[in-house]
Amino acid sequence: MAVEILKEKYRSKVGQVVLGATKDDGGTRSHTITVGGESALPYLHFEGEIPNRPVVALEVWDMVPDWNPCFENYYGDVYNDPGAWAKKCVDEYGADLIQVRLKGADPDLNDHSPEACAETVKKVLEAVSVPVMVIGCGKSEKDNTIYSPIAEAAEGENLVMGVAELENYKAVTSACMANNHVVIAQSPIDINICKQLNILIAEMSPAMSSRIIIDPTVAALGYGIEYSYSIMERARNGALQGDKMLAMPMYGNAGFESWRQKEANISDEEQPGWGEQEERGILWEATTAMAYLQSGIDILVMRHPEALKVIKNNIDDLMKDNSY
Amino acid sequence: MGLTGLEIYKHLPKTNCKDCGSPTCLAFAMALASGKASLEACPHVTDEAKEALDSASAPPIKLVKVGTGDHVVELGEETEIFRHDKRFFHPTGVAVLISDTEDVAAKAENFDGLEFERVGMHYITDMVAVQCDSGDGGKFKEAVETVASKTEKALILMAEDPAVMEGALEAVAERKPLVYAATADNFEKMVELAKGKECPLVVKGKDLNDLAELVEKVVGLGHKELVLDSGARETSQVLADLTQFRRLAVRKKFRPFGYPAIAITSKEDPKEEIVQAGVYVSKYADVVVLKACEKQQLLPLLSWRQNLYTDPQKPIAVEAGLYDVGEPGDNAPVYVTTNFSLTYFIVEGEVESSRIPSRILSVDTGGISVLTAYADNKFSAETITEAIKKCGLEDKVNHKKLVLPGHVAVLKGTLEEESGWEVMVGPREASGITKYAKDNFSGGVS
To answer: What total of structural domains would you count in chain B?
Structure first.
């Protein structure tokens, strides 16, 4: 009995965004990465194109992070050296790209100067040849002072920089505009704000509308993940149905969010009913990332090298053709 | 489902006899259409009409039950492609696989321990699958009996040789196990076994076309308690096949795929297997069978299942009341927030990262956020005061100070008057709590 395969016909597709720049384009990366371009729901190769596989980043901080002790084994020797840290992530752990989180810029922590932040980014760019993403410390007043020096110091590299928020998008967007970088537009699990922010950025500069990465805010497993999951499913459906202001590649900090949670961190002794801590943490992170792959994410930022490995294998599997 | 009152009316006797309790046949038809009456109430409806109405009103995906008593697992009866359109109804049954060639007793012994308490909820690994790898009917039966004696949970019996299945099924038929599986080679015998014991049956094809054909043959033999297996084992193909089952059943009412679906993992590494199973839970599997059996492996998967199957239209609430963060002493700070789970968990996370043991008073706002609840008068001087009294806060701390979310600073005056507690205005966003706590409570509440 012949089954009539049900394929959705979509009017549009997700825009493609190039990350990084090689010598030919004024940068120093060995290669660029292209994300987006989907004309089907996640991994439904039978009804459209998934031209670019999603990419997985690892995160490097500009200060010794307060992470779970289990990370000492992987990064302990490089916590004090962002360049060496980045290199280890790429060479040993197989990160497709690096995200620098300038946590040390936080005025309540190390209060690194804008120049020091730019210097950190330069060091990472020198240490690795993959494309680089840079985000601030999360306090917008300070972050607004670091975007320009970084964007200028890395001119031509086509960084991904963030984050732009509805209440505070101009400084980072201007810095990206002036130096040809890509901007991360972050909205708080809200599809309307997501769209509105993209419109505002595009109004500042029409050229920027093809240089936006959406951060819909990815909650961790067990802590609102289903909200993010559904917002992303809706955004991706909107993009495929022709809404240009939702048709950007999506990005999320799966590692950062997962490792904030008790389920990833609490020791076996304190919580014997939940099993062994490190594997539990790895799977808390990997399961979070898995769900976002299923709702259409294009760039995942992970933390644990084992979680990254598991997720890269899952991506290999999902990228196999399933046409009928 | 789907039929209008008038369409139903055409099939009724149109005698207005009132035997069904409705004044007219038309009124009865309307009640049927809106789901307020059942066709059984009409003693005069013909068998032909009954069949026509039954199949037209059947849900797009049949409900199939596995197991007995408190351990029944309900599969199927899903109506959506996307959870945001309405919701998913029956959480994927998660089955741990035990082979009859491994130490069955040991693995079965641990199985019932795969349950978890998390954020006030209880997560259960709800099924156990026993697979015949030995090829030996006696050994398989013994393995099934061992597992059945260790757990009351729903069983899946996996053996494609009907001769092997027969003995094991005989032994545990009253537990209503899911029989796996009928294939093109064995389906007549398998249907006879499963139907004879009134047990649900997996129909396994070589691909979608083969499966659709086989389902029709099985239905033709009179068995309708079915579960689908396309036979695919590669992640990407399983995802595609599960998507086709759901779409064709829901959108096209394609009958051969109007049953719940089972997915079986292929990964050997437990971490990869959990992620693979996660894909199937996300996209439409009603049962997933996996080998991983450690607590740290099942907890993330069961958490994802719980999250995915929540009702997106219903705000999720935590139980209102007083929560400890760390081990708060009697001079620990007290933060007030709502019982919207997302708000609560964010506040809890920030309070936790302040590393200052504290208490959080979660006020019953019907599971809505601070500003919405304030606008709705559910987060007010009265409701907060009531919450303070209800949890006996006065006896738990040696001070009378509360931290109120900055967004509702306007409540300070009335709340102080109403409750008699001193109100400290906290940060507007939870992200400011860590700093706020360090600035104000490094030495406890003074």
So the answer is: 3
For position B212, which CATH number holds? 3.20.20.20
Q: Which domain holds residue B15?
A: 5-57
Task: Flag residues of chain B having pLDDT under 70.
Answer: 1-2, 35, 55-57, 120
| Those residues with Cβ within 8 angstroms of residue A206's Cβ, 6 or more apart along the chain or in another chain | none
| Residue B31 domain-assigned (yes or no) | yes
Q: Which domains does chain A have, with CATH numbers?
A: 16-318 (3.20.20.20)
Test B272 with A310 for CB contact under 8 angstroms.
yes
Distance CA A235, CA B279 (A): 20
Which chain A residue lies closest to B115 (C-alpha atoms)? A273
Higher pLDDT, B312 or A214: A214
pTM of the model: 0.88
> What's the Cα-to-Cα distance from A211 to each of A98, A101, A190, rounded to whole Å?
18, 20, 21
Q: Which two tokens stand for residue B238?
A: 């399983």
Q: How far apart are CA B227 and CA A291, in angstroms?
A: 25
Q: Which residues are registered as beta bridge partners of A56?
A: A300
**ipTM, two decimals:** 0.98
Partner-chain contact A274 B296, CB within 8 Å: yes
Contact assignment for B251 to A6 by CB distance below 8 Å? yes
**Burial of residue B69 (number of CB atoms within 10 Å: 0-12, 13-18, 19+):** exposed
Is residue B446 situated within a structural domain?
Answer: no
Chain B residues within 8 A of A229 when measuring between CB atoms: 83, 307-308
A137 neighbors A143 (Cβ within 8 angstroms) = yes
